[in-house]
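As promised in the previous annual report, we have extended the structural survey to additional targets. Below is the entry for 2EXR domain-containing protein.
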Amino acid sequence: MAAASFHRFLDLPAELRLQIWESVAYTAAQPRIHFMPIDEYTEEEFDRRWISGLLDLDGSGQADDVEIMPKTERSWAKDNDSAYLIDAGMWTACKESALVLINERHQSQSTRFGTFRDGVHDWVFDVDIRRDLLCFQLSNDADWNSGWGELPFWRTSWWPPSGICSIAVEYDSSWAVGVKLGMAADALDGMQYEPGPRGFFLSILAGWRDDSAPFIYLIDRSIRRRRKAPHNPGSSDEKYRSKGRTFGVVKGLRDVAEETLTSGMNAFNFLEAIGSVEGYWTWEKTNVAGISRSYYLDPEEAIPVLAITDEEDVGSLGNE
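The corresponding structure token record, generated without further manual editing, is:
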């Protein structure tokens, strides 16, 4: 009897199929975080017409400009907890499922689409360039202290916004090499031009001097954010959702779960050390009227640190 009453999905009424797709579609109602492996830039070959045709189901032309992700040694899908993977399969499952997501995203003027190849499979995903956070996972030999415009969804104009507003980099213990309180400015300057994530991060901070770089966060997986961390009245409690995890802003060491603190240098210690370089974070800038003004950047105050909340994945601490 069970076999006789079973219906193939394609044989179900269209209204029921649509209801099923809508029930499983991930709603991007909250800010999301996407982890993007980056080596040296090499673009994959795709059939752009096929991808655009798949996404532009309602004829709006919204999906004409699909960003192709660079080819990397690391997988864009395996062992990746990006939010873009939550509903990525629905984009290519069939036209019905893609239409459900198109209708969800259609109201947003800040939705951008991307595609990547993983093995022999092509994936499609979306990001909200105003609200989502892109974490660039640069390989240690990738030189990205310039040429940022080739990075995925990079912002090339401020208005109208053409790319991502905020990015992130993952801090790890290797960043501590050569870094200490009161270090020489020349040493910090040299680190800005080194390959890998630390050099990229420092080059972004340098880019703030001429407003050429976006806002940036540091992610520290070696610590955990206290579940009931103090919240300052009037400030936003920033949280970004990934696949099964929540990354929240840690206001300071008081927000860190004590059992995750070690004697090693964490992201807060790193920001304190580079901020201690005398005279390095002060500069002059002249506006269009010819008026000069002094600026000062305090890395500890300016760079938000993100960590996973302590009730999530505590057992995996130190194994990530």
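The chain is about 20% helix and 20% strand. Helices lie at 14-24, 48-55, 88-93, 95-105, 185-192, 197-207, 267-275, 299-302. These points will be discussed at the next consortium meeting with the crystallography subgroup.
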